[in-house]
Amino acid sequence: MAQDDLDIDTDALQRRMDGALNALKNEFASLRTGRASASMLDPIQVDAYGQMTPINQLGTINVPEPRMVVINVWDKGMIAKVEKAIRESGLGINPVSDGPLIRLPIPELNEQRRRELTKVASQYAEHAKVSVRNVRRDGMDQIKKAKANGMGEDDQKMWQDEVQEMTDKCILVIDKMLETKSAEIMQV
Predict the structure, then answer these.
(1) Mean pLDDT by 10 residues, the chain (188 residues)
(2) Which first-to-last residue range defines the signal peptide (predicted)?
């Protein structure tokens, strides 16, 4: 049995955990605190032409004023689907159609809306934690396979500790990111 068969690729596991953190950063960037931004629509996917498509691939997104986002949908047949996706996104924005344009007036953030956004941020953080835990589980499965192929008890314990430590660090970063974003949202 070659030594390489018994080593665990922690770099690949770390890259996957970092990917979960980057996805969370992007989702948090979409949670705007009262100001309009084109990036707030980034996580929204529209069921277009038989597949889920990002809104920015279905039209031009502009921010003409601080509390307004305007989407110029290229295919008129997609307007209703884009509106539906925005309504169901959890952003709390009610789209208004104006021909090929969809106007998104960004509501003033009241206390209730801030709390809702904090809950959405918590959901995003929980999804990231689940992703990190799935990577951890895959790492532990690799270790079990390596043990079945002759890895010693001491090596198994060392690898399990290393994977767990990576997981704990990522979860801690996610918690800090959530804490920061929640404070930003609740700031009046």
Answers:
(1) 62 94 86 73 87 91 88 91 88 85 85 86 95 96 90 91 96 96 83
(2) none
